[in-house]
Design brief:
Layout: H1 11-31, H2 41-54, E1 58-59, E2 72-75, E3 78-80, E4 95-100, E5 102-104, E6 107-108, E7 111-116, H3 122-140, H4 148-161, E8 165-166, E9 172-174, E10 181-185, E11 202-205, E12 208-210, E13 216-218, E14 225-227, E15 233-235, E16 238-242, E17 247-249
Antiparallel strand pairs: 1-5, 2-4, 3-14, 4-7, 5-6, 8-12, 9-10, 11-16, 12-15, 13-14, 16-17
The chain binds 2-amino-4-trifluoromethylsulfanyl-butyric acid and cobalt (II) ion (2 copies).
Length: about 250
C-alpha cells in the first residue's frame, strides 16, 4: 500500500524507481528539440503525452489534484505549475521549465529542466546556470548521516551569493509509489537541522531560483505560480536515492 510516511526503499524498489527515472529523463530529451519559437506549450504537452503512452507509462500530473494536463510548462516569470495552453506560444529569448513525471509500473520519475528558447538575455543565462549549479550543490550534500538542512543551506548560500533568491513556497519531496510525500526538502535553511538522511530514502531536489524577490503569487487558475515582481524564475529537478555511501541520481537517461 502507498504510504504517506517516510519510508526506506528496498533495492528492488529502487530498481523500479531507476526505470521510471530513466524514462522521465528520456522524455525531456525527446521534447528538447521541440523547444523553439512558434511552438505552443500545449504542443509540447501533447507530444509528451503521446510519447509517455507509447512507452507503456502514464503521465502522473494528468488529473493529479485536478491538474488538467500531462506536464508543467513554466515560462519566464512562472515559478512552477504552469498549465500547457494552445495560446501560449514560445518566443525567442524565453526561458521555459518543463517538468515531467511518468508513472512506470506504479513508480514516479520526477525531473525538470529549464531550457532557452533561442538566445537568452545575459541575466536569463546567468539565472539558469546558477539554478542548475544550485541543484548540483544540493545533490553533493546527499549521503547517509547528512541532514535535509544541509541541502537547503548549500542551495541558499550559493543562490544568494550570486544575487538571486530562493523560493520558499515549494519544496522537494519524497517520491516513489506516492507522488509527494515525506521527507520535505526545503531549498533554504541551516546546516545540521532537519531529518537525518538514511540509505533507501528517495526524494527530489528541485530548487526554484528567482531573479528578484522570492515571493510568489498563484493565478486565478489555482495552479500557476508566478513571481510577485514579474521577474524571471528558473528550476531544475532530479529524483535521488540515498545509497550506502552517497547518492544516486535516478533521473538520468
Ligand atoms: N512535478 C511537479 C513536482 O516536481 C509536480 C507537479 S504536480 C501538478 O513536484 F499537478 F502540477 F502536475
Ligand atoms: Co517535478
Ligand atoms: Co517534484
Amino acid at each position: 500500500m502507498p504510504t504517506e510516511r517516510l519510508v526506506l526503499l528496498s533495492s528492488r524498489e529502487i530498481a523500479k524507481m531507476r526505470e521510471a527515472g530513466r524514462l522521465a529523463a528520456e522524455l525531456l530529451l525527446h521534447l528538447e528539440p521541440m523547444i523553439k519559437p512558434g511552438v505552443s506549450t500545449l504542443q509540447i504537452n501533447d507530444a509528451a503525452e503521446r510519447w509517455t503512452l507509447a512507452h507503456g507509462a502514464k503521465s502522473a500530473p494528468l488529473g493529479y489534484k485536478g491538474f488538467p494536463k500531462s506536464l508543467c510548462a513554466s515560462v519566464n516569470q512562472v515559478v512552477c505549475h504552469g498549465i500547457p495552453n494552445a495560446k501560449q506560444i514560445l518566443r525567442q529569448g524565453d526561458i521555459i521549465n518543463i517538468d515531467v513525471t511518468p508513472l512506470v509500473d506504479g513508480y514516479h520519475g520526477d525531473t525538470s529542466k529549464t531550457f532557452f528558447v533561442g538566445k537568452p538575455s545575459a541575466v536569463a543565462q546567468r539565472l539558469v546556470e546558477v539554478t542548475e549549479e544550485c541543484l548540483r550543490r544540493g545533490i553533493a550534500e546527499v549521503k547517509p548521516g547528512s541532514r535535509t538542512g544541509d541541502i537547503g543551506a548549500a542551495i541558499q548560500e550559493y543562490a544568494e551569493a550570486q544575487g538571486f533568491s530562493v523560493v520558499r513556497n515549494f519544496a522537494g519531496h519524497g517520491v516513489h509509489r506516492v507522488f509527494h510525500t515525506e521527507p520535505e526538502i526545503l531549498h533554504y535553511g541551516k546546516r545540521g537541522t532537519g531529518k537525518k538522511l538514511r540509505q533507501g530514502m528517495v526524494f527530489t531536489i528541485e530548487p526554484m531560483i528567482n531573479e528578484g524577490t522570492y515571493e510568489v503569487e498563484i493565478l486565478a487558475d489555482g495552479w500557476t505560480a508566478v513571481t510577485q515582481d514579474g521577474k524571471l524564475s528558473a528550476q531544475f529537478e532530479h529524483t535521488l536515492a540515498v545509497t550506502d555511501s552517497g547518492v544516486e541520481i535516478l533521473t538520468l537517461p
